[in-house]
Design brief:
single chain; 69 residues; alpha/beta; 3-stranded parallel sheet; 3 helices; 43% helix; 14% strand; phosphorelay response regulator activity; hydrolase; protein-glutamate methylesterase; EC 3.1.1.61; Sig_transdc_resp-reg_Me-estase
Length: 69
């Protein structure tokens, strides 16, 4: 599983894409709750984010995704 929270750059997005390519679940924080949306946006642009959710929903989404794998 990969989770990207607020941040800059693309390195995390590339790592998340690798996880997604292998079938792993991935989550990116949404723009509205990010201080810096750069890295989550990069992941979304790469198609690496399976889910995009607000910060306060990340933990619950992680649990849901783990239960379905």
């Amino acid at each position: 599983m990969g989770v990207l929270l607020t941040g800059m750059g693309r390195d995390g997005a590339r790592g998340m894409a690798a996880i997604r390519e292998k079938g792993g679940p991935t989550i990116a924080q949404d723009e509205a709750t990010c201080v810096v949306f750069g890295m989550p946006r990069a992941a979304i642009d790469l198609g690496a984010a399976l889910k995009v959710v607000p910060l306060d929903e990340v933990a619950g989404e992680m649990v849901r995704l783990v239960r379905t794998v």
